[in-house]
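Supplementary Note 3. Input sequence used for the single-chain structure prediction.
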Amino acid sequence: MTPAVQEDLQITTAGGSSIRLGVGFKMLDSEAHKQQAAPKQSSSRQEAAEEAKSYLVDNGVQLFLQEMVQALLKHRPTEPLDYMSDFIAERKKTGPPLKEKKSTPAAQSSPVKPQKSPSSTGGKSSEGEYPRGFPIDVAPEVMPDLSAHCSLMADVLQKDPSVYQKLRCLKTSLGVTFAQLIKPGVDVKGHKMIKTAGLAVGDSESYEVFEPLLKASLGLRFGDQLVEEPQQLHMDASKVCSDALDPTGENVVSVRVQVSRNLSSFRFPTACSEDERREVERVLVKAFQLLSEDLGGDYYPLAESHSCAALGMPKGMSEESEEKLRRKGFLFEEPDSAVSLSSGLARQWPDARGVFCNQSENIWAWVNEEDHLKLFSGQPDSNLHAAFSRLAAAEKSLQIILQQEGLNFACSEKLGYLSSSPHNVGTSLCATVVMRLPFLSATPNFRSMCAKLKLQVKAVDGKSWAVSNTERLGTSEAEQISRVASSCKELLAAEKQLASSRQTTTSVSKPLDSPAVAARNVVPPKPAASKALPDAMPALDFSSMPGLGSKEFPGFPTDICPEEMPDLTMHNSLTAQVLKSNPCLYHQLNATKTRSGVSLAKVIKPCMDNKGHPMIKTFGAYAGDEESYTVFGKLFTPALELYHGFSSQLQHRTDLDPMHTDAAPIDPSGKYFQSVQISTARNLRGFRLPPAASRDELRAVEQVLACTMCDLDGVLAGNYLPLAGSCTYTQIPGGMSSEQEGQLRDAGALFQEPDSTLDLSAGWGRHWPAARGVFAGDDLKTWAWINEEDHLRLFVEDSSSNLRSAFERLSSLESVLAQSLAQQGHGFMHSDSLGYLTSCPSNVGPALLVRLTVRLPLLTARSDFKEICRVLGLANARVSPDDKAVQHVSNVLGLGVSEADLVNSTAKACSCLISLEQALERGETIQRPGLGPDALPIFKQVPTGGLQYLRSHSGAAAAVLRAHPEIYDQLRDKSTARVPFSGVAGVTLGMQAGVRSGLLGVADGSNSARQRPGWIGLCAGDEECYDVFQALFAPALELYLGESLPTPYPAVALTPDAVSGKTQGVIADPQGKLSVRSVRVQLSRNLKGLPFIPACSFAERREVERILTKALTRQTGTYFPSKGSTSCAFRPAMTDSEEQQLRSQGLLFQEPKAPGLLACGAGRHWPDARGVFLMSSEGTGTNIAAWINEEEHISFVACRNDGDLKAAFAAVCEAEALLKAELEKDGLAFSYSERLGFLTAMPGKLGGGLLVRVLMDVPQMSACRGISDLSEKAGLEVALRHSRPGGATVEVANRSSFGISEAGLVSSIADACVDMMRGEE
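The predicted structure, written as discrete structure tokens, is reproduced below.
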């Protein structure tokens, strides 16, 4: 089966707007295919696309689809799918039949068949390898028949064939021929609705030599813009207004400006040789390296490019760099369109192509993509002037640097900057603004309005639109930027007018009218007319909008799943991750339904309809009713564990007692704290949840909740107001008035219809706005939403920094409602293990959000403010784009943490932020929490009620203390010479997740991997801890290992020669098809007699560094103190280039980020007295270094880019032996116990202190459950899975090195990895 391919059709309607129709095809084996004389070699993606396109054209399918879509747009039926079905049926009866074509080998079906793509031949092809078809040396004497071709080139030559005869034998001085120029337009017929240029310009001289054709084509493309006067070029930001496009930040998401440049001395990428392309890359990379500090950065050759060995990247960028660039939108892919391939852009791919990115990640550049250089500047706001100014500075700097080398950008007096595509000449500038335009984009004249403003528009994600300039020629860069800015402001003005016409924001100071019906008599004022809108917009009719009417959102079905599970390779939700790991779940649950009729298809539809983003993990599934969590528990349980980090074997704690919260104010001064909002979600038992509920069910829920809440009195009294347009609440038919809507909006108490495809696909927007509304307290400090995402969401708001008062009001409201509903026979959905149940599983547990508004001008100005919030367990968001100082901060924790604990931890974390702000006001230097002189604060103390609360805490230590609370009583007052019990177990007692160090396994639906705790949850501050607190360490370690501790501990012997087994420690695929990307061996040790890292003082940590560097420097190597460290007397901290070198070799470590590690003290005084000793290993293939004062005093790390695990192990053994001998000369030794082996701060490393990681390609095994089972049997865990187009990698590592010989461990890991490769085959 060949890969799926995509064909894009663009249809122009009678009104001038256009629609792009994407048709996906998957080519299956056919009888014709089976009857071929010889087996066909696997075709490339490009070949498959060409063959599919040829099939569509030859059989009349493409033309038929165009006619059908045009008819659909002309009549715009309310049921488009039914209309399309009828259209096809009618054509079968009355219209000409589709052409039937005899089955022929696919190789014969396409007149233009590209040769195997570079990506399929190892990335290199010969210089002259263009796709077959029209020649590239001399054009034939007779002009090809272009009557069926649709391009500007074809139009010109058909109108005047003499141009062909005049130019066909010409070539430029660099050897670019006329045949090369017109090859794309001859090879690819194109489509009459999509006019490509049909030309591939090979160098700057082509615009002169082939002027008769190019000038005529440019005239068709640019029309009036093509004038005889010189092209103006002004990259001058001072000529552009500096005002932000959208000061409120409500509509504009981001801006981006880009320009293209080519070097005049070289052929363009369409025609250049491999050597030319490499020289262009060399010149540009050298120029990048000479940029000023604010523009400077790093160059990343594309993966598998071999042109940058001199930069230390002989195989191009790493997977990590590739993923990072792709995530940020900075990466470009190989060309796959027939036009691009025929133009020659894919030759020798990916050699000498790459991406440059500056340190601030707001300037980036593509090298040798379509042009020699494509330069970008971006802003995550509406400041188009700033983006343009930065781009102009970068372009000017590069131009000056290149001129010093005797090089210039290709430029013409009349045409401006020259490009390989004639469509891009002139300024070559493209300014793109991404905007949210929900009201304007819903109008039928939206696209025509953009066209009149000389903007082209493209949908981004269903709710945002990217608009960019169509002008390139005839005006300067500054003028084009100004035109884009003014046009976008017109669109924004039109959007705001439409918004105000639907939701008038009349300022009303009095509270909402008590008699709800009387309030309907107020007539809202008519909005003023605006010239920005050509036509008035009718009232929005949600019934016709996908996902908001009575029907489900288009896409995956909701009744029953297809027989075969869809391909989820590129899907990134947690649900997709679970299904990919255990595909059997799909088939096991497919026919299952809850008693109320909720199916698996309904639950997983959001996962199937939305690929998501690899760095933004959505849950991907929605519960349709209470029973969904049990009926589909095999799916929900592992996904919940992944999302919340909360084991299914634990129980959530519910605690709504306000007396268990701290009454102390967060900010007694009132200077920093502004307000707090606490909200919680509830759902009624006996009804389906909003994603699956019918209109009648929603209405029944509305009646129950609205009537119950309207009966409240006292401080909880208020009124229920249905959303405007809702007719289900008979007391207020038609919903709330515009004045009431405005009041609720001003108070932040109004909710809108869902607009993301994820929410629409979940189904909770159906029947909008029926049975939805807001219960508003009389003072608008308390309100509730009915039938938004959940049946009920309660809100309270308070200006007091004592959070207990707000929580008390919320708790009181929830309690009164629960009691009243109970009297009516209703109750809230609740589970002993999961707490309160919600539509989206990400909210289960307390279903509570504590959001505080604070003003922290100094702290928020720091680039690490978001990271500071993260380690404190907070999420942050700006309140206003105009004032970064004011932020919303809210809790991140959920499942497993009680409501009272959430309020307390959020309050204390916010207090910590205020303390940091005050320190900055005093002029003090601050570090992120946990990286300064103190450990990250633990916000929870052990309650007087005992240890039952630990039933929601993870880790082996928490499990032991839950089962044996007497151990806590026995040890709570004990201490070593310097480490109290709280220093050992405080993190487990005070933090739900405890201390996580080293390897963390990946939950994937395989129950066997989750039978034992994933980590221990303790840390040792010195070697004495293991004796004084043995009563806790021993059972926790046994529970983690799943076996009793050996007595005495077997002797540790680091003997590489003892490595044996089937593989002898070398991991290789017996069939030679799969590869090992890397192996890493890490060996940790601590010095006897000195405190371990969590308990080290500032001076003691420096003493450890002094001792170790003294011994290490007697060997061959170099010590690099961590950047920012001032502790080393003989060497300054590492430079940027040294840091990059270590990172590229996999030998750099970073500061700890896990809250548990920071809380136990592993990050204190960072980065002082930390560093990397790089050992000499030239010619061995092994990169080896020693990490000083990371988690342990020293860790030897050896990395290889192959599967020779034994060689990496031998390297760390040799390094450890040499250091041990040097230390013995000074009377020093490593910390060792006859009972536990080598002692470490993190008990998971006890024994041999050995951690082995292997990263390998096993694309099939990585997506199935078997790899977890196989890993578990070998004492390994799956540490990382990475899926990408065309393959997947998996990283496995040993769970522990305790009780097994180091050589035996290496042998077993190598054997297990080879077994996985065999399983793959």
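The two ends are 18 Å apart (CA to CA). Residues 324 and 330 are 9 Å apart (CA to CA).
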